[in-house]
């Protein structure tokens, strides 16, 4: 199977499995999405979705958010982990959004990356999911699967993102990155991986990965 055939197989399989693609993080607008994605770093979407309603009940826009102290924000979001850094980032970026953008979230990755506690992946998720601008945010699931499928060398997420953007059609990036995340969680997890359920890796998987899997099963 050529690389082009593999890419087509991945796209077709994911489309069949996920014709409707749910957004993992609950939000109602670009600002609440930005905050939710920032909070999701080294946490789970489930945990974030439990905590964001408590925060957004008090402050769901930058103007209300800056009325809270960093300590008050930290106290609310403490269960998601890394709360001191995240609270400082949320408070700081809310000030910048008011001072520089009239309270609105900017629509470019470059401007978003200038905000406190907002990295490339967070910025990519926001432009893709809030503004429908093509981006390919790479999380641990996508990084793992692209390597398992032999579509990247897996050295780092920067390379994985470049390879994903090179291989997949631009008009599919936004839905594909979500489809791969859901697939990774359901069929190709890091732990408790069952290759019998993972049709994509079983079909196009990197030989060394498959060899390692079967060796571990002996």
Automatic annotation (TrEMBL):
Name the InterPro entries on file.
Answer: DNA_glycosylase, HhH-GPD_domain, HhH_base_excis_C, Nth
- State the source organism's domain of life: Bacteria
Cofactor(s) needed:
[4Fe-4S] cluster
Name the catalysed reactions.
2'-deoxyribonucleotide-(2'-deoxyribose 5'-phosphate)-2'-deoxyribonucleotide-DNA = a 3'-end 2'-deoxyribonucleotide-(2,3-dehydro-2,3-deoxyribose 5'-phosphate)-DNA + a 5'-end 5'-phospho-2'-deoxyribonucleoside-DNA + H(+)
Which EC class heads this enzyme's classification? lyase
| Keyword entries, A-Z | 4Fe-4S, DNA damage, DNA repair, DNA-binding, Endonuclease, Glycosidase, Hydrolase, Iron, Iron-sulfur, Lyase, Metal-binding, Nuclease
| HAMAP family the record matches | Nth
UniProt name for this protein = Endonuclease III
Protein's organism: Leeuwenhoekiella aestuarii
Instruction: Read off the lineage from the record.
Output: Bacteria, Pseudomonadati, Bacteroidota, Flavobacteriia, Flavobacteriales
């Amino acid at each position: 199977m050529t690389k082009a055939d593999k890419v087509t197989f991945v796209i077709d399989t994911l489309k069949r499995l996920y014709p409707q693609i749910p957004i993992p993080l609950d939000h109602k607008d670009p600002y609440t999405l930005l905050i939710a994605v920032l909070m999701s770093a080294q946490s789970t979407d489930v945990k974030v979705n439990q905590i964001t309603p408590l925060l957004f009940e008090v402050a769901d826009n930058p103007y209300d958010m800056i009325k809270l102290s960093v300590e008050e924000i930290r106290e609310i979001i403490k269960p998601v982990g890394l709360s001191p850094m995240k609270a400082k980032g949320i408070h700081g970026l809310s000030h910048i959004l008011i001072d520089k953008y009239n309270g609105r979230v900017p629509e470019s990755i470059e401007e978003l990356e200038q905000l406190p506690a907002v990295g490339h992946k967070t910025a990519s998720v926001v432009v893709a999911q809030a503004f429908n601008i093509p981006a390919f945010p790479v999380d641990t699931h996508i990084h793992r699967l692209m390597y398992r499928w032999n579509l990247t060398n897996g050295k780092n997420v920067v390379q994985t993102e470049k390879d994903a953007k090179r291989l997949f059609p631009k008009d599919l990036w936004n839905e594909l990155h979500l489809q791969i995340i859901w697939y990774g969680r359901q069929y190709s997890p890091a732990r408790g991986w069952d290759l019998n359920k993972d049709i994509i890796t079983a079909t196009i998987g990197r030989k060394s990965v498959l060899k390692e899997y079967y060796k571990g099963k002996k």
